[in-house]
# Entry
Amino acid sequence: MRKTLFESFTHGVLTEAAPAPDEAGLAELAQAVNRAARAKLGRSLSIRQVDAGSCNGCELEIHALGNAFYDLERLGLRFVASPRHADVLMVTGPVTKSMREALLRTYNATPDPKWVVAVGACAVDGGLFAGSYAVAGGVNDVVPVDLTIRGCPPNPRQLLAGLLALLRTAA
Ligand code: SF4
# Structure
Protein backbone atom coordinates (compact mmCIF):
# COMPACT_ATOMS: atom_id res chain seq x y z
CA MET A 1 0.00 0.00 0.00
CA ARG A 2 2.81 2.38 0.97
CA LYS A 3 4.58 1.53 -2.32
CA THR A 4 1.42 2.29 -4.34
CA LEU A 5 0.94 5.57 -2.52
CA PHE A 6 4.55 6.56 -3.13
CA GLU A 7 4.29 5.66 -6.83
CA SER A 8 1.13 7.73 -7.22
CA PHE A 9 3.04 10.79 -5.94
CA THR A 10 6.12 10.25 -8.10
CA HIS A 11 4.56 9.15 -11.44
CA GLY A 12 2.05 11.94 -11.91
CA VAL A 13 -1.04 11.60 -14.08
CA LEU A 14 -0.89 8.66 -16.50
CA THR A 15 -4.26 8.99 -18.22
CA GLU A 16 -4.47 10.50 -21.69
CA ALA A 17 -5.85 13.98 -22.06
CA ALA A 18 -9.41 14.10 -23.34
CA PRO A 19 -9.78 15.20 -26.98
CA ALA A 20 -10.65 18.85 -27.43
CA PRO A 21 -14.41 19.31 -27.88
CA ASP A 22 -15.63 20.40 -31.31
CA GLU A 23 -18.32 22.72 -29.97
CA ALA A 24 -18.96 24.49 -33.27
CA GLY A 25 -19.40 21.21 -35.18
CA LEU A 26 -21.68 19.88 -32.49
CA ALA A 27 -23.84 23.00 -32.41
CA GLU A 28 -24.15 22.87 -36.20
CA LEU A 29 -25.24 19.23 -36.07
CA ALA A 30 -27.81 19.95 -33.35
CA GLN A 31 -29.15 22.96 -35.27
CA ALA A 32 -29.44 20.81 -38.40
CA VAL A 33 -31.56 18.34 -36.38
CA ASN A 34 -33.75 21.19 -35.15
CA ARG A 35 -34.17 22.64 -38.66
CA ALA A 36 -35.06 19.20 -40.05
CA ALA A 37 -37.60 18.68 -37.24
CA ARG A 38 -39.23 22.04 -37.94
CA ALA A 39 -39.36 21.29 -41.67
CA LYS A 40 -40.92 17.86 -41.02
CA LEU A 41 -43.18 18.61 -38.04
CA GLY A 42 -43.50 22.39 -37.95
CA ARG A 43 -42.01 22.43 -34.43
CA SER A 44 -39.15 21.03 -32.40
CA LEU A 45 -38.64 17.33 -31.80
CA SER A 46 -39.87 15.52 -28.67
CA ILE A 47 -38.20 12.30 -27.65
CA ARG A 48 -39.34 9.64 -25.20
CA GLN A 49 -36.56 7.35 -24.07
CA VAL A 50 -37.47 3.76 -23.24
CA ASP A 51 -35.07 1.47 -21.43
CA ALA A 52 -36.31 -1.94 -22.48
CA GLY A 53 -33.62 -3.81 -20.55
CA SER A 54 -30.25 -2.23 -21.27
CA CYS A 55 -27.15 -2.25 -19.06
CA ASN A 56 -27.55 1.56 -18.79
CA GLY A 57 -24.43 2.29 -20.84
CA CYS A 58 -26.62 3.57 -23.67
CA GLU A 59 -28.65 5.67 -21.21
CA LEU A 60 -25.49 7.43 -20.02
CA GLU A 61 -24.81 8.57 -23.59
CA ILE A 62 -28.44 9.57 -24.20
CA HIS A 63 -28.57 11.49 -20.93
CA ALA A 64 -25.40 13.32 -21.97
CA LEU A 65 -27.45 15.05 -24.67
CA GLY A 66 -29.12 17.00 -21.88
CA ASN A 67 -26.06 17.74 -19.75
CA ALA A 68 -24.31 21.08 -19.40
CA PHE A 69 -21.97 20.40 -22.33
CA TYR A 70 -24.46 19.25 -24.98
CA ASP A 71 -27.52 21.02 -23.51
CA LEU A 72 -29.74 20.23 -26.46
CA GLU A 73 -32.85 21.82 -25.01
CA ARG A 74 -31.41 25.21 -25.97
CA LEU A 75 -31.67 24.02 -29.60
CA GLY A 76 -35.19 22.74 -29.32
CA LEU A 77 -34.74 19.00 -28.73
CA ARG A 78 -36.76 17.87 -25.73
CA PHE A 79 -36.96 14.65 -23.76
CA VAL A 80 -40.55 14.21 -22.60
CA ALA A 81 -41.99 12.23 -19.71
CA SER A 82 -44.94 10.75 -21.58
CA PRO A 83 -45.14 8.87 -24.89
CA ARG A 84 -48.32 10.88 -25.59
CA HIS A 85 -46.11 13.94 -26.11
CA ALA A 86 -43.41 12.20 -28.16
CA ASP A 87 -42.51 12.12 -31.85
CA VAL A 88 -39.63 9.67 -31.42
CA LEU A 89 -39.25 6.65 -29.17
CA MET A 90 -35.57 6.12 -28.49
CA VAL A 91 -35.38 2.53 -27.29
CA THR A 92 -32.37 0.85 -25.71
CA GLY A 93 -32.35 -2.88 -25.37
CA PRO A 94 -32.30 -5.79 -25.47
CA VAL A 95 -36.04 -6.07 -24.91
CA THR A 96 -36.44 -8.24 -21.87
CA LYS A 97 -39.51 -10.41 -21.50
CA SER A 98 -40.63 -8.32 -18.53
CA MET A 99 -40.37 -5.07 -20.56
CA ARG A 100 -42.01 -6.41 -23.73
CA GLU A 101 -45.55 -5.43 -22.73
CA ALA A 102 -44.42 -2.01 -21.43
CA LEU A 103 -42.69 -1.27 -24.75
CA LEU A 104 -45.77 -2.30 -26.72
CA ARG A 105 -48.01 -0.09 -24.57
CA THR A 106 -45.61 2.83 -24.91
CA TYR A 107 -45.60 2.39 -28.70
CA ASN A 108 -49.39 2.25 -28.83
CA ALA A 109 -49.66 5.37 -26.63
CA THR A 110 -47.45 7.44 -28.94
CA PRO A 111 -49.48 9.47 -31.46
CA ASP A 112 -48.84 9.24 -35.22
CA PRO A 113 -46.63 10.22 -36.93
CA LYS A 114 -44.09 8.46 -34.74
CA TRP A 115 -40.69 6.97 -35.29
CA VAL A 116 -38.85 4.31 -33.36
CA VAL A 117 -35.08 4.51 -33.04
CA ALA A 118 -33.27 1.43 -31.72
CA VAL A 119 -30.15 2.63 -29.88
CA GLY A 120 -27.14 0.37 -29.33
CA ALA A 121 -26.04 -3.10 -30.39
CA CYS A 122 -28.38 -4.77 -27.91
CA ALA A 123 -31.41 -2.97 -29.32
CA VAL A 124 -30.61 -4.29 -32.81
CA ASP A 125 -30.67 -8.01 -32.07
CA GLY A 126 -30.15 -8.55 -28.35
CA GLY A 127 -26.38 -8.02 -28.63
CA LEU A 128 -24.45 -9.54 -25.74
CA PHE A 129 -27.66 -10.76 -24.21
CA ALA A 130 -29.14 -12.49 -27.29
CA GLY A 131 -30.34 -15.97 -26.45
CA SER A 132 -30.78 -15.28 -22.75
CA TYR A 133 -33.84 -16.86 -21.16
CA ALA A 134 -34.87 -13.34 -20.06
CA VAL A 135 -34.66 -11.68 -23.49
CA ALA A 136 -37.51 -11.38 -25.99
CA GLY A 137 -35.16 -10.12 -28.75
CA GLY A 138 -34.21 -6.86 -30.39
CA VAL A 139 -36.56 -3.88 -30.53
CA ASN A 140 -37.70 -4.83 -34.05
CA ASP A 141 -39.00 -8.13 -32.70
CA VAL A 142 -41.56 -6.19 -30.64
CA VAL A 143 -42.31 -2.89 -32.44
CA PRO A 144 -41.43 -1.64 -35.96
CA VAL A 145 -38.08 0.17 -36.03
CA ASP A 146 -37.42 3.12 -38.37
CA LEU A 147 -33.72 3.60 -37.60
CA THR A 148 -30.97 1.76 -35.78
CA ILE A 149 -27.98 3.53 -34.26
CA ARG A 150 -25.29 0.95 -33.66
CA GLY A 151 -22.49 1.06 -31.12
CA CYS A 152 -21.86 -0.19 -27.62
CA PRO A 153 -22.82 2.42 -26.69
CA PRO A 154 -23.17 5.01 -29.48
CA ASN A 155 -21.85 8.41 -28.41
CA PRO A 156 -23.97 11.61 -28.32
CA ARG A 157 -22.66 12.80 -31.69
CA GLN A 158 -23.68 9.47 -33.30
CA LEU A 159 -27.11 9.81 -31.68
CA LEU A 160 -27.54 13.29 -33.17
CA ALA A 161 -26.35 12.16 -36.60
CA GLY A 162 -28.87 9.29 -36.43
CA LEU A 163 -31.73 11.65 -35.54
CA LEU A 164 -30.77 13.90 -38.44
CA ALA A 165 -30.74 10.97 -40.86
CA LEU A 166 -34.13 9.87 -39.54
CA LEU A 167 -35.71 13.29 -40.02
CA ARG A 168 -34.29 13.67 -43.51
CA THR A 169 -35.40 10.26 -44.77
CA ALA A 170 -38.47 9.16 -42.79
CA ALA A 171 -41.86 9.45 -44.46
S1 SF4 B 1 -25.30 -1.72 -26.52
FE1 SF4 B 1 -23.64 -1.84 -24.98
S2 SF4 B 1 -23.98 -0.05 -23.67
FE2 SF4 B 1 -25.89 -0.37 -24.81
S3 SF4 B 1 -27.19 -1.68 -23.51
FE3 SF4 B 1 -26.00 -3.06 -24.85
S4 SF4 B 1 -24.17 -3.62 -23.67
FE4 SF4 B 1 -25.08 -1.78 -22.71
Remarks:
- The beta strands are 46-51, 78-79, 88-92, 95-96, 115-119, 135-137, 147-149.
